Write the structure tokens for this entry.
Amino acid sequence: MTSAGMYESKSKGERIEARVSNEQKRLFKRAAELQGSTLTDFVVSTLHTVATKVIQDYEVMDLTGRDRETFVSALLKSTLPSGRLKKAITHYKKIME
């Protein structure tokens, strides 16, 4: 099964259209042939892979070892709420009743 094969069983109710040059279409078609998939399956698979990576890169934060230690330390550090925070909590509870 090709990498695009995992997308074949899903519902195909939506359509995407794009205009590409002849050169781009030949390139995409050749790449699809090399993977043993159809042009459509190749395009969908490639778009899915790239879209997933873009979203992951946007949503996931990689920390250095030092950053990670600082972050975890701040989470584990036991601090009592300040007077301003206590006042804000009391005010919030009052308006939410």
Remarks:
- The helical segments are 5-8, 22-35, 39-59, 65-76, 83-96.
- Confidence is low (pLDDT under 50) at residues 1-6.
